[in-house]
Structures are given as C-alpha cells and as structure tokens.
C-alpha cells in the first residue's frame, strides 16, 4: 500500500472509531438498550444524580385538554407531598425538586415529554400519568431508559406489564370492574344492565370488559353493549337502542366530559335509570356538565373525603388550606404516588434506576390516603375501593369494597 493511502486509511479508521464511541454514548440504557450503554437514572447518570445538591423528580400529566382536571388535581397532590418531604429535611439530606410537563392529553406528546425528562432533565424517577393510554406511551420510554415510573391512577392492566420499571398506586380495572359489578348485584340488586363505552380509550374498553365478565359471572345479564368515541356530542342513537332493552342501569366507563353529556341526553330520552361508572368520573366538572341528571348515579373511586381515617382527614385539611377546595381522588392518588416514591428513594441504596425500582417493589403496608397499599409481584397496588353516589351535585360515600 502507498504511504499516503496508509495515512488516509488510518485517519478514516480513527474517525469511524470516534463516531462509534459517540453513537454508543448517545444510546439509551435500561432493558432493550445496547450492551454497555448508560441511561439516565442508572449507571453513570445515577452517579451524576448523586453529585447534585437536589434530587430531581419528573412529572407528566394532562394539565390542559379535555381531561385537564385530572392532571391539575394530581399535580396539586404531588406538590403537597413535595412540600411536606422538603419541610421534613428532604431525602438523604437533599431537597427534592419537581420538573413538570403538560402532555395536553395527547399520546404522542406523552412519549415526547417523558423522553425530555429523561434525556435532557435527567430525572431519577417519574410520576404519571392518569389516563392509561398516556401512561402506556410514556411508560415505554421510561422502561427503555431504565427510569422508574409510578402512575398515580392508570388502571389498565397493560400499564405495568410494560416492564420492571413501571409501577402504580391505584387498583387495576379487573378489580374495579369487579367492585362495580358486586355493588350492582348485591347492593342495588340489579339483574339487567346495559353498557356504553369509549372505544378509543384503553381505560374504557378494559373496564367495560372486566365489568361485563364479573357481572355475568354473578348472574347478571348485559342487555346491550354500545360504543362511542371520546369527544362525540350526540349519543342519541346508542341511548335509543339501549332504551329498547329496558335495562335497570347503564354502565358508562368513560371520562367525566363524555359522561356528563351522556347523563343529560339519557334523561332527555326518558332513561331515568341510574348510571354506573368508574374513577374516570371523578371530577368537580361532572356535575357542572350534567347538573341534576347525574344525581342518583354511582361510581367506584379510590377514596372519599368523608372517610374518617386519620390519613384522610389530615390530607383533606392540608389540601384545603393550600388549594382552597376539597381534594378529589386524583389529588389523593397524586399525593400517595409521590409519598411512596419518596419513601422508596429514601430506602434505596443509591439514586440508580434499578435500586429505586427495587425499593418501590418492596413497598408493603404503606398507610396512604387512598388506603393501606402493598405493591404486588406485578408492580400493582393491592388496596380497597369505595363506591360513591352523586347526591346534590356531590359524591357521597356509600361503601368500601376490600380486595378479593
């Protein structure tokens, strides 16, 4: 080989080597990452976090959009927990900081902001989301990078099935479906129920399936299953079909914006039977939309501010003092998610993702606002549920249903 050719070859080889090293550093770590790569929240990034003066936690939620009260209430609960932990001296001698992004209730945006929290902000853990579809989008990113994520209130079973970095502090839909079905059969003595669900939401479809399964196993009959797409304004065709089957109640496992309109339209069509639902109803906006049409209907939830447990009453008082209103279930779950995460970080031997995840997995009998919480082998919370009745535009406590 000619001398000049050898020099050009050597220079090209070195250039290629540096390029490969640079690419390797840019790759994310965690499960599915390239061998030897590092992810924020694990390995080198965990060491970098240990050198900071503060511990940075990420949050993503729907602070705007059609379900904005979900994100706003959850954020309030997280902020309250953050202030408490910092007032008590922080964690491992460090103050805790929160970086929050609005995903606008959009699936693509959820993945984008979680990527930003990890790659740019380099958070050690993430809290979010409320909607299961958004938690699925953000959770896949968190799992890819090896950063622990705790969902306050995504109840679809698929969320924690993403991988060993994804946790939740709420119950899951199979249990919630069982709770509503049990209440319908045993408390309300219902035999025939129709279903109207949002076919575009993983939450609504999953909860519908679980309710139908439990209700029929308990001897009940589903008179009709009708579907809509979130954001629809006219439900008259579905409700007219349902009316023709003479149900004793209608199960509507949707979000409060649609449920309010469904309640109004069902009453206009002469359907006076109660509506039944899940925790997607939990918003002060529901009675604002539905008015008296929602009274006499029931939904499952994670807590009631009327419960007399000391954890509940202390939380309600602190929340009212700071935010001026009564906390809903989303606020309570945001608070519990943050408290459980802070507790796990305090028990973890380092700020690395795997250590924090292992500490989260070891959470047992944590006395939260939404109940005594144990994280099971599938990273789901084992805990009770409550049933609430809408009375005079407000949810009233009816019953507590313990885990099966």
What topology does this entry show?
Elements: H1 3-26, H2 44-51, E1 54-61, H3 68-87, E2 95-102, H4 107-119, E3 125-127, H5 132-145, E4 149-151, E5 166-168, H6 173-187, E6 192-198, H7 202-217, E7 221-228, H8 236-243, E8 249-251, H9 256-268, E9 275-277, H10 285-290, E10 298-301, H11 310-323, H12 329-347, H13 353-361, E11 366-368, E12 371-375, E13 381-382, E14 385-391, E15 394-401
Helix pairs in contact: 3-12, 4-5, 6-7, 12-13
Structural account:
The N terminus is likely disordered. The strands form 3 sheets. A 7-stranded mixed beta sheet has the order 7-6-8-9-10-14-15, sandwiched between helices. The chain has a 5-stranded parallel beta sheet with strand order 2-1-3-4-5, with helices on both faces. The chain has 3 domains: 37 residues, no CATH class; 203 residues, 3-Layer(aba) Sandwich (Rossmann fold), CATH 3.40.50.2300; 128 residues, Rossmann fold (3-Layer(aba) Sandwich). α3 crosses α12 and α6 crosses α7. α10 links the parallel β9 and β10. It is elongated, with a radius of gyration of 24 Å. It is an alpha/beta fold.
């Amino acid at each position: 080989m000619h001398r000049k050719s050898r020099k050009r070859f050597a220079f090209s080889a070195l250039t290629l080597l540096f390029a490969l090293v640079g690419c390797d550093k840019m790759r994310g770590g965690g499960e599915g990452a390239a061998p030897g790569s590092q992810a924020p929240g694990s390995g080198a990034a965990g060491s970098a976090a240990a050198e900071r003066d503060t511990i940075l936690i990420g949050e993503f939620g729907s602070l705007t959009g059609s379900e904005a009260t979900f994100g706003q209430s959850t954020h309030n609960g997280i902020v309250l927990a953050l202030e408490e932990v910092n007032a008590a001296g922080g964690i491992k001698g460090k103050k805790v900081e929160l970086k929050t992004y609005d995903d606008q209730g959009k699936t693509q945006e959820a993945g984008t902001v979680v990527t930003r929290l990890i790659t740019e902000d380099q958070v050690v853990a993430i809290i979010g989301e409320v909607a299961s579809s958004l938690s699925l989008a953000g959770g896949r990113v968190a799992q890819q990078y090896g950063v622990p994520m705790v969902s306050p209130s995504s109840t679809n079973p698929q969320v924690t099935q993403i991988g060993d970095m994804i946790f939740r502090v709420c119950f899951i839909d199979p249990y919630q479906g069982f709770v509503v079905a049990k209440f319908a059969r045993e408390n309300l003595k219902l035999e025939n129920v129709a279903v109207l669900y949002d076919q575009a939401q993983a939450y609504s479809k999953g909860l519908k399936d679980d309710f139908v399964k439990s209700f029929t196993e308990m001897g009940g009959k589903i008179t009709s299953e009708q579907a809509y797409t979130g954001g629809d304004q006219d439900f008259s065709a579905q409700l007219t079909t349902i009316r023709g089957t003479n149900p004793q109640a209608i199960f509507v496992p949707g979000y409060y914006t649609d449920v309010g309109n469904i309640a109004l339209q069902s009453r206009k069509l002469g359907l006076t039977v109660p509506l039944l639902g899940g925790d997607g109803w939990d918003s002060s906006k529901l009675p604002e939309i539905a008015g008296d049409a929602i009274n006499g209907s029931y939904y499952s939830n994670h807590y009631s501010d009327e419960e007399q447990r000391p954890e509940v009453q202390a939380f309600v008082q602190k929340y009212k003092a700071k935010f001026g209103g009564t906390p809903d279930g989303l606020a309570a779950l945001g608070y519990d998610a943050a408290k459980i995460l802070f507790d796990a970080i305090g028990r973890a031997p380092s700020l690395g993702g795997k250590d924090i995840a292992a500490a989260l997995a070891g959470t047992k009998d944590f006395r939260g606002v939404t109940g005594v919480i144990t994280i099971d082998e599938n990273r789901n919370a084992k805990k009770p549920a409550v049933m609430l009745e809408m009375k005079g535009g407000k949810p009233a406590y009816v019953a507590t249903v313990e885990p099966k």
